[in-house]
Amino acid sequence: MSGLKNIELGVFMEVSELVGLAAGFFTTMSLFPQVIKSYRSKSTKDLSWGWLAAFTLGVLLWLAYGLMIDSTPVTIANIATTSLLSVLIFLKLKHG
To answer: How far is CA 16 from CA 30, 46, 66, 69, 75, in A?
Structure first.
C-alpha cells in the first residue's frame, strides 16, 4: 500500500510542478507587453521608481525563497521576471 501512496504523491508533485511552471510563465509574461511598449515608445514616464523598486525587491525575495525551498517553478519564474524588470529599469534609466 505504501508503494501506491508514493506513486500518487509522485503524480501530484509532477502536476503541482506543472501548475507552478504555468503560473510562473503567465505572471512573468504579463510584464512582456510593458517591456515592448517601453522599448518601442522610448518612454517609461508612466512607470514610477517606487513601483519598480518595490516590485523588484519582492521578486528578488521570491527568488531567494525559491532557492531556499529548492522550488524549480518559483526559481525559474523569478529569474525570468528579474530579467524583464532589469530591462525596464535600464529603459527607465535611459529614457526617464
So the answer is: 21, 36, 15, 15, 15
Is residue 38 within 8 A of residue 91, CB to CB? The reply is yes
Residue type, 73: P
CATH code at 2-95: 1.20.1280.290
Walk along the chain (96 residues) and give the pLDDT tens digit of each residue. 455 555 565 666 678 888 888 999 999 999 999 999 999 999 999 999 999 999 999 999 999 999 999 999 999 999 999 999 999 999 999 998
pTM, rounded to two decimals: 0.81
CB-side exposure of 6: number of CA atoms within 13 Å?
3
DSSP 33: H
Residue 20: CB partners within 8 Å, gap ≥ 6? 71, 72, 73, 74, 77
Tell me which DSSP letter residue 92 carries.
Answer: H
